[in-house]
């Protein structure tokens, strides 16, 4: 049995775009044509590959083909580039799906993409995902590479250490005066309003357990924006863990203060990518490593692995 290239491309488009209609627009065909190709592919492998939901998702069997479709797309794009060179219209830019945590996106990751050499014609489908959870997107083939807190190599991937993102516990000076009087520290943190990025964010609770040697359940404001998180802390809405690169300017300006100076929290980060001989993936890996190794803390305390956002 051989898989049909057009059917595989239709399957990949449905998974990437989330619907048959969006996949049809991407492929410049009708939704009916996409549906027929998917049905033919499912008939050839004898299994349902796509959940007809909103958004459309691959079934467990379909996940096996997601990675294959991505690999075929990368290799085809690079082969066409070698064959046709720089002829106008020779190929569309390769679209690279990547999972990145919010704080890396807000600090060092986008400048890494800007460092890519001009000859690497590439666009990106960036999935913002907590670094503790991005590994699942690699396993199911949704992304080709990810910034992750997981050191264990995913099957079929390569992993390289980048360094660690250093977080500082910060609050506004007025918030500290109102909620964290020095004679009550650190116990006052157990009831002081706390900022949390989202329900996957374990940084603040990890920091509290380290200080109090017990669990605590303070009032929480959820704020899923890296820059909004810093602004909320600056305005006194709560205390929270902020990447040092983002916190330092506000600390230097007197708008934020460290709650416990000398007690940072380091979250080691890793770059995991498909084990595929691809010039595009290699170039992306080079710029990510260069930026990560240049900006992230290289002396991470490994006991804090897996606690970031």
Automatic annotation (TrEMBL):
The UniProt entry, under PROSITE patterns, shows:
HTH_LYSR
Protein name from the UniProt record: HTH-type transcriptional regulator LysG
Alphabetized PANTHER family for the sequence: HTH-TYPE TRANSCRIPTIONAL REGULATOR ARGP (PTHR30579:SF2), TRANSCRIPTIONAL REGULATOR (PTHR30579)
Coiled-coil regions, chain positions: none
- UniProt keyword DNA-binding, yes or no: yes
| Keyword Cytoplasm belongs to the record | no
State the superkingdom. Bacteria
Family from the record: Belongs to the LysR transcriptional regulatory family.
Q: Which residues form the HTH lysR-type domain?
A: 3-59
Could you cite one Gene Ontology molecular function of this protein? Answer: DNA-binding transcription factor activity
**Which terms are listed as keywords in the entry?**
Activator, DNA-binding, Repressor, Transcription, Transcription regulation
């Amino acid at each position: 049995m051989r898989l049909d290239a057009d059917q595989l491309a239709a399957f990949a488009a449905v998974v990437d775009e989330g619907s048959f209609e969006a996949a049809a627009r991407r492929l410049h065909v009708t939704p009916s044509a996409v549906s027929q190709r998917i049905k033919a592919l499912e008939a050839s492998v004898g299994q349902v590959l796509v959940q007809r939901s909103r958004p459309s998702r691959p079934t467990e069997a379909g996940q096996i083909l997601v990675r294959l479709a991505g690999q075929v797309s990368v290799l085809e794009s690079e082969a066409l580039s070698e064959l046709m060179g720089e002829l106008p219209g020779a190929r569309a830019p390769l679209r690279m799906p990547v999972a990145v945590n919010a704080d890396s996106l807000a600090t060092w990751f986008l400048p890494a993409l800007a460092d890519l050499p001009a000859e690497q014609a590439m666009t990106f489908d960036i999935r913002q995902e907590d670094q503790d959870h991005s590994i699942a997107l690699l396993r199911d083939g949704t992304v080709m590479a990810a910034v992750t807190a997981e050191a264990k190599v995913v099957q079929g991937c390569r992993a390289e250490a980048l360094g660690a993102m250093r977080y500082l516990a910060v609050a506004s000076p007025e918030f500290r005066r109102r909620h964290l009087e020095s004679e009550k520290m650190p116990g006052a943190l157990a009831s002081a309003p706390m900022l949390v990025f989202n329900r996957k964010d374990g940084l603040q609770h990890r920091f509290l357990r380290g200080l109090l040697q017990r669990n605590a359940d303070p009032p929480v404001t959820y704020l899923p924006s890296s820059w909004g998180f810093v602004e909320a802390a600056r305005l006194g809405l709560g205390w929270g863990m902020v990447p040092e690169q983002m916190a330092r300017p506000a600390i230097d300006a007197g708008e934020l203060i460290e709650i416990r100076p000398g007690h940072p929290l380091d979250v080691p980060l890793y770059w995991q990518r498909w084990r595929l001989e691809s010039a595009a993936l290699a170039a992306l890996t080079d710029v990510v490593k260069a930026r990560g190794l240049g900006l992230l803390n290289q002396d991470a305390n490994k006991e804090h692995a897996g606690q970031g956002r």
